[in-house]
Every structure is written in C-alpha cells, then in structure tokens.
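Hello,

Our lab assistant flagged a job as stuck in the queue for most of the afternoon. It eventually completed. Since we weren't sure the result was trustworthy after the delay, we are filing this so someone can double-check. Below is the sequence as submitted and the structure that was eventually returned. Let us know if re-running is recommended.
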Amino acid sequence: MKYSIIFIAIFLCLILNQFQEVCANDSSDIPKNINPTLSTKYLVIIFIGLVFVVALFIGFIYYCKKSEENNESNLYSEWNERKFQRHIEHQQHQNIMNNNNNSANTAAIV
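-- returned structure --
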C-alpha cells in the first residue's frame, strides 16, 4: 500500500510538471493549421493520464482480490478452529462416558 501511494504521487508530479510546461509555452510554436488541443504535448498528457487511470484500476482489482483471499483464509481458519473445538468437546464427552462406564463396572464388580 505504501509503494502504491508513492507511485501515485510520482505520477501526479509528472502530470503536473507536463501540464505546467504546456501552460508556460506560448502558442506561437504551434502551427496555425493544427488544432492546439491535439498537439503532441497534450497527447502526452492525455496518455500519461490514461496510464495513471489504468494503473489505479489494476491496483484496485488487485486490492479487491487480495482482500478476498485474506477473507477466505480467515474463514478457513475459523472453520478449522470450530472443527478443533468440536473435536475437543467430543473427546471430553467420550472421557466422561468412559469414566461413567468404568465407575459402573467397578461398582458391579464390588
């Protein structure tokens, strides 16, 4: 999680830096017959933004899958814990029954 925040911060810095360069340049270097919104610098900014959005989407999917796996492993450990508890309860019940049988047998012998 820490690395993803650093990754996002670096991307934001790159986008802001590129945007600042575009805004700082005057439009005199752009030919008049090309629409300024389709200039190479704007396309670079759009591309970086799209990469950023796709990276966020992939990160979100990865995070959801990880949390789902953790949830499943927690459920599995809870299930194992309950199973172990039932085993202990069954063992205790068996011991009580055996003790009752032993005392009944001892009383019958005496």
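-- support follow-up --
The delay was a queue issue, not a problem with the job. The result is valid. The chain has two domains: 1-26+33-63, 71-105. The radius of gyration is 34 Å.
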